Amino acid sequence: MYFTKEMLEASLKLTKKWEEEVKKALRENPDQQKRFTTVSDMEIKRLYTPEDIKEIDFEKDISVPGEYPYLRGNQVTGYRGRYWTFRMFSGMGSAQDTNRRWHMLLREGQTGLSTAFDFPTLMGYDSDSPKALGEVGKCGVAIDTLEDFLALVEGIPLDEVTTSMTINPPATVLWAMYCAAAQVKGVSLNQIGGTIQNDMLKEFIAQKTFMCPPEPSVKLISDTVEFGAKHVPRWNTISISGYHIREAGSTAVQELAFTLRDGIEYVEDVVRRKKLPVDEFAPRLSFFFNSHIDFFEEICKMRAARRMWAKIMRERFGAKNPRSLWLRFHTQTAGCSLAAQQPYNNVIRTTVEGLAAVLGGTQSLHTNSLDEVYCLPSEHAVELALRTQQILAEETGVANTIDPLAGSYFIEALTNKIEKEAWDYIEKIDSMGGMIAAIEKGFPQMEIADAAYKFQSQLEKDEKIMVGVNKYVTEKQHEIPLVEIEERVGEEQIKRLKEVRRKRDGRAVKKSLEDIKNACKKGDNVMPHCIEAVKNLATLQEICDVYREVYGEYKDPGLY
Q1: Is residue 478 part of a domain?
Q2: Global pTM value
């Protein structure tokens, strides 16, 4: 027991005395709200005491950094030896435009790269596809061929800088391009490091960027996990993402539960399909969480996530390697918390959310720019967002000690509560037959929809507050410069694509695509064939069309 019997008795006595004083105080100064809740509508008590964490076992439930259950972090030295990676999400227009932004950010102190792709690329279509009309380069970088990718990484030391790529249905193709680009530049596959998001289950649940049905989508993910474990040991072949689940309107508990259950699904598939021992690939699994505006809820969610994943890997999968138990994660501040009204308030929101991520022990962080609610971030806005992280790291002292909020009655009690409710969700999904079965039943989708509706209703009734939106509203307009992608970007991209098609060896491309098709039909790993195909200048869509032909296309039952 964490506290002695005598300590608990003393605490209870003091608490009862305090409660009597509260009653008197409330007669003169009533509470400002009827209910005090988190953003996720979790009830928060007025005061937390030893009674709330009396069942905690320090060694088993909390421990020290670098020791099971890793509640306090994976690294024994925390941020003292190394800050989290400053990884700003960037992608705009052409590969050349994005490359210039990357170099600017690296000059300003960014320590890792992160790529946003345009919508056609995300969906597996070339820039000259009719489905790409009007979208080329508008919300990220357009990538059609290996030549685009080589332009994207021009001047980037791929053996020194890690790169994250937010790509899902065509993840095998974009990763193949990265691998091929490294080889062209004389960098071996065992030297490159980075992450592909590559999380399709959350697409079916929340973001809705999908191509093939769930089962073959998961197969392609397992292909990348297997290939990475054998040939690209420094690469995180999946970033199991709760971020988009939260952006779709979920609660913190739902984000945590659905993300970890997705992770379980992927581990089960790799073990079953690829026959890989869990310790051969689990150390390279990574996660991606949202840091929303409710400061303490987010910190507790991240702490709970580490403890839960450690338990899952040890107890459910029998992992022996300590690194298999580590939940390594990137964090992005909440896009859904940004407001178009009074946009400079977004700087403050992002700062608070970034601080929560750091106190929650993130390994990597993107801080949103104040103008992202309007457009792709300007250089000025993204520099300010980067400086926010640097000030947190260098000036505030928050990196001086590890998990400084540990032992707080409130923090530990809230961490436990979030974890318990997340386990309840996981058990429910298990009873349905797993996450794919739950998705087919529409369970996580409906849970998120209900939570989103509830929050919006509370906002409209002023039960939840957004400053500048439903309180402290002003008619004053704050002008900010907007980044616009000109139509010529798409026109020039299409010209480059046509030139690549003109000069390449068509027979080599055809053979490469046939090899991919045969691998899909046989259940073989597609990655070696994808790398060969992109080296022969096969396009993104040509490879994705093979997937669509063999596996079929997915249609959301909620829409059809």
Answers
A1: no
A2: 0.96
